[in-house]
Design goal:
The protein is of the alpha+beta class and 97 residues long. The protein has 4 helices and 4 strands. The protein has helices spanning 2-25, 35-40, 46-51, 82-87; strands at residues 55-58, 64-65, 78-81, 91-92. It has a two-stranded antiparallel sheet with strand order 1-3. The protein has a two-stranded parallel ribbon with strand order 2-4. The chain starts with a helix and ends in a 5-residue tail after the last strand.
Length: 97
């Protein structure tokens, strides 16, 4: 009986150590695509623009429209449809478009 208890405790201890060592060595998983890559996969052909309203972002002082997550987009971004942004004379950002 005593041997079984010692064996059980030893085995449990080894499992605990192995599990903690395994979890410490795991690298965090990264998303398969970065936000900019996800946004660039959006269809922005004229037919797609007519079918659905694509949201872009502008700033109070800028003349460019951006995708969400663009490094040149300020904190005070204003959502607007792509169609409206073009109507108002905004042009695409060279970084995110």
């Amino acid at each position: 009986m005593k041997k079984k208890l010692v064996f059980f405790l030893l085995f449990s201890f080894l499992l605990l150590i192995a599990n903690s060592a395994f979890s410490m060595g795991e690298a965090p998983t990264e998303p398969s695509k970065k936000p900019a890559e996800i946004n660039k996969s959006i269809d922005v052909t004229p037919k797609a623009i007519e079918k659905k309203e694509i949201t872009v972002y502008i700033t109070k002082t800028g003349s460019k429209y951006h995708r969400y997550g663009c490094r040149y987009l300020s904190r005070t971004c204003i959502p607007i449809t792509l169609k409206k942004a073009r109507e108002y004379g905004y042009t695409p950002c060279s970084v995110c478009w």
